[in-house]
Amino acid sequence: MDVNARRLVWTTGLTLRRAAWQRHHRLVRELADYRTPAERDDLLASIERCPRAGREEIRRLLMRTAARADADRGPYHLRT
Q1: Does residue 26 fall inside a structural domain?
Q2: From the CB of residue 50, how many other CB atoms can be counted at a distance below 10 Å?
Q3: Residue 49: its pLDDT value, please?
Q4: Which pLDDT score is estimated for 37?
Q5: Residue ranges for the chain with pLDDT beneath 70
Q6: Which pLDDT does position 23 carry in this prediction?
């Protein structure tokens, strides 16, 4: 493989990784809008018709967001 071909492969890989990173972070920001458990349950019910790979990624990110929201909220008796 000559130098130009290697450079093309390297830049293409970099571009694909950057696009995947941007897509992932855009999805995380969009899922952060679902704040209440009812909203998250509605979203989970609606993604059951999505393709398997997309559904699993959304479910995993939504559960991580829910766990983070629960941890930030804390127990009710400790609120000021």
Answers
A1: yes
A2: 13
A3: 81
A4: 84
A5: 73-80
A6: 94
Token digits for 53?
A: 């790979």
**Cβ proximity of 62 and 30 under 8 Å:** no
User: Which 3-state string (H, E, C) describes 7-70?
Assistant: HHHHHHHHHHHHHHHHHHHHHHHHHCCCCCHHHHHHHHHHHHHCCHHHHHHHHHHHHHHHHHHH
Neighbours of 57 (CB within 10 A): 15
Residue 77 lies in a domain: no
pLDDT at 55: 86
**Residue 30: inside a domain, yes or no?**
yes
Number of structural domains the chain divides into: 1
Identity of the residue numbered 43:
L
Q: Is residue 80 part of a domain?
A: no
